[in-house]
Design brief:
Chain B: It catalyses: L-threonylcarbamoyladenylate + adenosine(37) in tRNA = N(6)-L-threonylcarbamoyladenosine(37) in tRNA + AMP + H(+). The complex is a heterodimer of chains A (about 220) and B (about 260). With about 220 residues, chain A is an alpha+beta fold. Chain A has two domains: about 80 residues, 2-Layer Sandwich (Phosphorylase Kinase, domain 1), CATH 3.30.200.20; about 130 residues, Transferase(Phosphotransferase), domain 1. Chain A contains six helices and eight strands. A five-stranded antiparallel β-sheet of chain A has the order 1-2-3-5-4, with helices on one face. A three-stranded antiparallel β-sheet of chain A has the order 6-7-8. Chain A is globular and about 45 Å long. With about 260 residues, chain B is an alpha/beta fold. Chain B folds into two domains: about 120 residues, ATPase, nucleotide binding domain (Nucleotidyltransferase, domain 5); about 140 residues, Nucleotidyltransferase, domain 5. In chain B, strands 1, 2, 3, 4, 5 and 6 form a six-stranded mixed β-sheet that branches. The relative contact order of chain B is 0.13. The chains are: A alpha+beta (about 220), B alpha/beta (about 260). Chains A and B meet through α1, α4 and α6 of A and β9, β10 and α7 of B.
Amino acid sequence: MKSPQLLKQGAEARLYRTTFCGRPAIVKERFKKTYRHPELDDAITNDRIKAEARALVRCRKLGVRAPVVYQVDLPRRRIVMQDLPECSTVREAICRLSAAQGADCEPLLALAGRLGRLLATLHAAGLVHGDLTTSNLLVDDQLEHITVIDFGLSVADGGAEELAVDLYVLERAVLSTHPQSGPFTEHVYTAYEQQWSGARAVLDKLHQVRMRGRKRLMLG
Amino acid sequence: MVVTIGFEGSANKIGIGIIRDGEVLSNPRRTYITPPGEGFQPSATARHHQAHVLDVLQEALDIAKITPDQIDAVCYTKGPGMGAPLVSVAVVARTVAQLWQKPIIGVNHCIGHIEMARLITGADDPTVLYVSGGNTQVIAYSERRYQIFGETIDMAIGNCFDRLARLLKLSNDPSPGYNIEQMAKRGQRLVRLPYVVKGMDVSFSGMLSFIEERLDKWLAGEYTPQDICFSLQETAFAMLVETTERAMALTGSQEVLISDR
């Protein structure tokens, strides 16, 4: 490995660019959170590294694009994975396209359709992403291929409840990216439902999840 | 000089504050405290507020050395909160506003929390962790509005603590959370509890049922009530800090404001 170069610092990990056996690679290192009890911090970090590595592998087995895992190093809190060729986040794509062509333009809705089918594939296998924001979805310049990253909060065999929360997180992320994103989300759900027979149950649950967040009594 | 008087009674506390140009002149309060193992019911809480509101009002005026004619506006908590206590206090606010012929301003409970805290701390554009008996939200100001970035998807953190206090039969005086904190200081061992963070949202109900189901077994030997309080705090607080941190990463805000009851 050549000496790693700091690429990005997130809320729970630093990303370094390096090479692994001659291939361009990314090191994702989860740093210690000193505000957490050390036992709790170790346990959470270990769980997340394992969950992430397993989900990445599983995701690729399902035919959904995700970085290849090269190495998992629990004591050093690291995952070494494939360095993806330059692409933008879905968040950036939504911002760019809705500014240029409107929030309900054809390329965006086509992207929404692809995203819906991709999520149906993951969800049909019970794979819950856990942090399905538009920043964790990458897309190439042609908007053809979506790559999913950052599986640290993923769950392996989620029920309707967890799958619905996944969609809810996405819905809110899309909304926070662009306020007039209704058509985008609708297209995601239409494609999601067409792709998978179990989708209806999840979408029904999603309705409950939405209500729960907003209509709760807030006392004290 | 602007002098305002504010009435708040959305839950088990009744409080009246007088502020002159951003300076708090007085802020007397009374808390309705229920026996251990019990929560506060709306109608009983309303009766408590009705019984104390006039005394508290007199106290607020006396401490501030302000007479009604010096007051420019009357404010009150409009909601959200418990209906009966809210109404009881709002009636008094409306009555004095009419008696004194002052304008009346309804204030959203949550905005009140945030703006009060900004005034006191001088924070400019903070990411707000708004936690109390009934609220658990991560809020930041964006696009000319306070926006909710993350929140609990089931019960509030305060509610979760209150329920644990009830399970352990801890006193509600001065508050269940305070007594959990005192117990937690003497906790020795960390019990591994479900740590549920979903993006910027948290969930506490799973953690509570996890404890409920195992409590008798734990207390029979493995863990003390102190350990359980300690573990609940460590786990729940870590969840809140993590989601707040995530929101800060998103907003780029450098300040955190923790706002509670």
